[in-house]
Amino acid sequence: MERFDKQPAMIVHDGQPFNAESPLGQLRQNFLTSKDLFFSRNHGSIPEVNPDGYRLTVDGLVDSPLELSMEDLRGFPKKEVTAVMQCAGNRRDGLIQVAPIPGETPWGAGAIGNARWAGVSLREVLLATGVGDEARHAAFSGLDEVEGADGESFDYGGSIPVEKALGPEVLLAYEMNGEILPLEHGFPLRVVAPGYYGARSVKWLSGITLQEAPSDNYFQTHEYKLFAPGVSAETVEFFEGLMLGEMQVNAVICEPADGASLDAGPVYVRGYAVAGGGRRVERVDVSSDGGRSWVQADLLEGADEPWAWSFWEANLDLPPGEHRVVVRALDSSAGTQPATAAEVWNFKGYANNSWHGVRVMVR
Ligand SMILES: Nc1nc2c(c(=O)[nH]1)N[C@H]1C(S)=C(S)[C@@H](COP(=O)(O)O)O[C@H]1N2
Ligand SMILES: [Mo]
Which atom of ligand 1 is nearest to the CA of 204? Predict the structure, then answer.
C-alpha cells in the first residue's frame, strides 16, 4: 500500500482512497505539523499532475475569465498564512460510541494538522478577473476522480461564499512548511480556506467558478452537511441541513494518552485547541474529575493567531486511582463545547466538538 512517506506510526484508515491520521502524542510535539505526520483525507484518486502543462481556469461571474499557468501564479505576490486544516470528520470515533455511523471513516482526534502555507492570495486572483455583482460563491473543482454510487466518476469540488473568498487569509497554496506542496496534499495547487473545515480546501485545483449558488458538487450538496440528531440515512432530505463552513471551537488532550498508567504526583496534560472563523482560543479548562471542577490551562503557541491552532498545557496533581481528565475550550465569541457527544450526534458524523477526555490510572 502506498503510504506517501508518512511516518510508520500514522494510523491508516484506508489505502484506496488514502486516509490516514496522526497519532496524538506525536501531533503535539511540533507547532507546525510536518508533512510526514500530516493527516491526509481523500475521496478519490491522487492525481499526478504535470506542473508544466498545468492551467488554472477562473471563470463564471467574472469580468474577464483567466487561464493561469504555475508561472503566472508565481508572478503574483507570495503570501504566507499559518493555518490549521481540520476534517469535519475529526473525532467521529466519539460519535460512533453513541450510535453507529456506517460507511464513514472512524477518525480519532488526529484528522487535523497545522502548517505554514504559501501561495497566491485568492483575493488577488479574483481582483484580477473582476468579481461580477451577482457572484455569491466561489466554487472550486479538483483534478481527482471520485467514484460515485452509480459507478460514474466525477471530480471532487466544493465552494465558499464570495465574502470569504475575498478574505486576505484564503490562499491558492503551492507550498506547505516551506517546501513544494506534497503530492497527497494537492500538488501543484490547492485552496487553503483558513477557519473553515478542510472539505472546502480543494486539492489539485483545476478551476474556480464564481456563481450565484453554492457548488453543486456531491461533496457540497450531500456530504459535509450537518443534520439534526433525529435525521437518518433513510429519512434525510439532502437539501436541508447546514453546509459546513466555519469550524467551531474544539480542544483535544494529546498527552497523557487514553488508558495511560501514571505515577501519583504532578502530571502534565497537553493538547491542541482550535477556534474557527478567525476567532481565537480564549481559554482552555481542564478537569480531572470528569467536569465537576476545572483548572485553567496555560495557552502556549498560537493563542494569538486567528488561523492557527493553539497549544495548551496544564499541570494536575492526581491522587492514586482512576481519573477521567477532560478538556474544553472557550473561543473569543464566548462559544464553548457541549459536554457529551450525544448532544451533537448526527448520522454523517461531523463536527464532534464535545469535551474530549482520557482515562488515566494513577498508582
Ligand atoms: N480534490 C480534493 N480536495 C480535497 C479532498 C479530496 O478528496 N479531493 N478532501 C478534502 C477534505 S474532506 C479535507 S479534510 C482536506 C484534507 O486535506 P489534507 O489531505 O491535505 O490533509 O482536503 C480537502 N480537499
Ligand atoms: Mo474532510
Answer: 1
